[in-house]
Amino acid sequence: MRARLHLRTCFVRRCRAVSAAFALLSMLFLNAACGTLPRDPEGTGARVQRYHEIRIGLVSNPPWVVGTGGEPSGVEVKLTREFASLLGAKPKWFWGSEQTHMEALEQFELDLAISGLDASTPWSKHVGLTKPYFDEKITIGVPPGTPVPDGLRGLKVSVREGDATAAYVRRKGAIAVRTEDIRHMPGLLAAPAWLLEQQRLTPTRFILFEEKHVMAVPPGENGWLKCLQEYLEQQKPKVPALLAREAQP
Amino acid sequence: MNAVGADYTLPPDKAEVLRRAQRVEWTFIALLISIIVVMALVMGSSQTMKAMWIEDTLSLVPSCSFLVGIHFRRKSPDEAFPYGYRRAVLVGFMGGAVTLLGFGLYIFGDSVVKLVSAEHPIIQTVHLFGRPIWLGWLMIAALVYSVVPPMVLGRMKIPLAAELNDKTLHVSAELNKGDWLSGIAGVLGIVGIAFGVWWADAAAAAFISVEIVKDGYVNLRNSVSQLMNRRPSTVEEQEEDPAIDKLQKALEQLDWVAKARVRLREDGDVLTGEAFIEPRDERDLLNRMAQARELVGSVDWRLHDVSMVPVRSVD
């Protein structure tokens, strides 16, 4: 038992060393990627490098952006916090609405905005969007031991009340049962695949819709966008783990 | 019963030139389609790329109408079309000209709006074979690729058009010049964005759209004046075609002709019309008119189906 514990701490320590080395490497890599062409017409990247500060707009949207009274948390908050530290900058958080943040981005008053944004947002005409860093599949989950149905027609499926998911469920011919708390509902449940897995439900092939998660930057700041884009591309594999940790009850 | 016009066959040396021109146009169309596909793949939200893509797509029109026109103008005149099919090319050509003009104006307006509202263009980064690459570099590569075929093949078309006296082919060569010029402008626009000059993209697009409008205008003027039976003009300089004078002089050299006046129009690549002849001597007029008709072919290979009209006085 003791031996196993020792091995574990050792492994964790080595893991830390490796991840520190990796962080250092990716910092060098990012710096190279962020300094070169293309340049930013309004100099966002250069300003971040000079003042060591990134102005980040936040819109509450758990588990992506979570306000807990003190420091913000959430998947996108964690990602951007690490991005900032790789650039040797500190994030300066601004809570607000999507409308105000997007307008601020458009006028170059923010450097980044996170709100669990989807690639299909109509704001794409006014601000710069990264490529999707995570594809969230909203599907239907079955409880363990229950056979996976062949079709959905006429079946009762629980959905969160006040959520667009209900419409997609209806479109598949199923009956949407709207509830306030989907965590303790028996039977079929419509939710993101990661959430289903967490509740030990089996996601099925009935995909209702997909949300491609992106972040927003000021318009035309192509160098800054590329810099963030490359960071997110590196982080892609980590996102499911971040999500799982974030959604712990 | 209609008086169906005579068949026209190109002289063998010209037929060979025509075959070469067709080969050049087919090659160009094949390359242009590849350009259009490549451009569409890397287009993104750049205004320059949008303008270039439209210009390249519309560049297909003159080349295609040349080839389609050649196919139709081989047909012999028949009951329904007693004057023949040699002007068939004009139909597609005019449609193309109007489209070109319309699109040019649209892109120009769009670019000016983007300049005035200071819209900053976004160019994404894509991951190719696991490596991040800014789409702007791919756009530049695509633009450079799009410059080469019109530059090379356009040059090849100019002498062919002059030899065949083919206005459609000539206009298609002229358009190619505009194509590669605007391709270079497009490269400058994207390089401008790379260096943080947000207005370079819309400015390049505006420049390209002026080129498109010019193309459209030239095409439209050319096709309308042919439809209006404008006096034939040379392919290169748009001056009066020497064939009119040559025919007039040749007719006046006949000893029985007092005066001659010739009126010609362009019928696709050939010239047709009427020659009014004032005879000095009216004896044996029918045979003499036949003699004059034979003379026509020897004056210029393009003269075809010219009607001989004896008149009391040409003035």
- Reported by name, the CATH topology of the largest domain in chain B is Alpha-lytic protease prodomain-like
The helix tally of chain B amounts to 9
Tally the helices of chain A: 8
What is the CATH domain class of the largest domain in chain B? Mainly Alpha
Mean pLDDT of chain B: 88
Number of strands of chain A: 10
Uncertain residue ranges of chain A: 1-13
Largest sheet, strands/sense/barrel of chain A? 5 strands, mixed
Oligomer: heterodimer
How many whole angstroms does the radius of gyration of chain A measure? 21 Å
Number of domains of chain B: 2
Strand percentage of chain B lies at: 5-15%
CATH class label of the largest domain in chain A: Alpha Beta
Mean pLDDT of chain A: 86
Descriptive terms for the model:
heterodimer; A: 249 residues; alpha/beta; D-Maltodextrin-Binding Protein, domain 2; five-stranded mixed β-sheet; three-stranded parallel β-sheet; 8 helices; 39% helix; disordered N terminus; B: 315 residues; mainly alpha; Alpha-lytic protease prodomain-like; Alpha-Beta Plaits; 2 domains; three-stranded mixed β-sheet; two-stranded antiparallel ribbon; 9 helices; 5 strands
Can you walk through the features of this model?
The complex is a heterodimer of chains A (249) and B (315). Chain A has helices at residues 2-35, 44-51, 75-86, 98-106, 165-171, 193-198, 222-235, 239-246; strands at residues 53-58, 90-95, 112-114, 128-129, 134-142, 156-160, 175-179, 188-192, 202-213, 216-217. Chain A has 249 residues and is an alpha/beta fold. Chain A has two domains: 2-133 and 214-246, D-Maltodextrin-Binding Protein, domain 2 (3-Layer(aba) Sandwich); 135-210, D-Maltodextrin-Binding Protein, domain 2, CATH 3.40.190. Chain A has a five-stranded mixed beta sheet with strand order 7-6-8-5-9. A three-stranded parallel beta sheet of chain A has the order 2-1-3, sandwiched between helices. Residues 1-13 of chain A have low confidence and may be disordered. In chain B, the strands form two sheets. A three-stranded mixed beta sheet of chain B has the order 3-4-5, with helices on one face. By secondary structure, chain B is mainly alpha-helical. Classes of the chains: A alpha/beta (249), B mainly alpha (315). Chain A binds chain B through residues 33, 37-43, 128-129, 131, 218-223, 225-226, 229-230, 233, and chain B through 119-127, 132, 134, 136, 193-198.
